[in-house]
Amino acid sequence: MTTYQHILVPVDESPISYAAVENALTLAKLLNSQVTVMSVVAIDPFVGVDFYKVAPAITDYFMQAEKNAKERLEDIKQSFVRDGIPVDVKLVHGVSPTEGIIQVANEISADLIIMGSHGRTGIQKMMLGSVAKNVLTQSPIPVLVVKI
């Protein structure tokens, strides 16, 4: 049987992320795995726009997004710490969520990614895309997709 030594858990603000965290907690306990929990702060669509530096609302938005992501990662980290599971957190900027997840997986030599999927279908899936689907198709390591 394959044993997973380092599990990567990408999270966002959605409830499905927390379902993935719960699955990672359970698996990490069973396998004595290390865990890295990560978030990607979305690519800034205004980079390069002349008025960007004079648009405080836009700057405030991205600063708040980063603050929220850091708080979320710290809260999740404590769940693993309470259970005695070795855990790190990473916050990635300037890339798409898929790129960030694959990049961190390579960087930490993860051997499993556990992530949530919203389970969108039809036109929603076509228009919105799916980070889980992209990671599943691009990742060279196993991906466990949690759906609720």
UniProtKB/TrEMBL annotation:
Keywords: Cytoplasm. Its main location: cytoplasm. InterPro entries: Rossmann-like_a/b/a_fold, Universal_stress_UspA, UspA. It holds the Pfam family Usp. CDD domains: USP-like. It is found in: Cytoplasm. Signal peptide: none annotated. Residues 4-147 form the UspA domain. Belongs to the universal stress protein A family. This is Universal stress protein. It comes from Acinetobacter celticus.
